[in-house]
Amino acid sequence: MSDKKQSTDERLLSLMEQLSLRDDNISDPAKLKKVLILSTPRSGSSMFCDVISRSQQVGECREWLNMRYVGAYAKMKKISNINIQEYLNFIMNKTILQTDVFAVNMHIEQYISLIQNKFDPMTLGFDVVVYLSRKNKLEQAISLLKAQLTDKWTAETQELSKLDEKKITPAAITQALSHIIQSEAVYQEKLQHRVSLELFYEDFKHLDTTESFEAFFKLINKPFERSQMSTAFSKQKDSVTDKYFHNYMNYLTGKY
């Protein structure tokens, strides 16, 4: 059996194909709870969602409103025109998994894109909204830039192109940092009032620190069991991030 990693789009198509093989789990509308994990990119939202999904207290939490996911669904169905409500019903029925909790991970940029396409995701009626961000914005920006250059968004994904470190310039890092700051500005103006809990990546990235997860499960009225905490995601930070973090700081302070 080949251990070859798949690209992001290959992984998403495989995911949709796997979902199509599952039985539907249609929740009683009176019991159904909808949870939204809002975040800026590279703030640990995929890892956070993996942990809460593996607890078996929450349905499978992924970026279901990301247009790349929607595109993978269309490719699987061999259709060009997508009925968003049919897509959402498909995702909901395949991912609740007898938990009565439908969970979505959505970046602020995805919210902006959906609004521009005349669909307000907040009309889905989320019962609980949690916001994840990162204290160290510069490390976050470098991580975002690396992912943009390679299309490698998790350690488990095959990069589409090798990382060209010549493209990790102060200008490119600044652009990535600006994207994060602008996303946070949209959050503060449009979405913060809907949020019940704000968490930082630095406070939940190590699973031996459980306060963030305890707060989340308390919020959704589900039992928290430390023994169920696990994740398939591995940390991606490496020497490249450290190097360009220090290079950028030296650039800002005139030591570049």
TrEMBL record:
Gene3D superfamilies in UniProt: P-loop containing nucleotide triphosphate hydrolases (3.40.50.300)
Entry superkingdom: Bacteria
Signal sequence residues: none
Protein name per Swiss-Prot or TrEMBL: Sulphotransferase Stf0 domain-containing protein
Source species: Thalassomonas actiniarum
Domain Sulphotransferase Stf0: 36-245
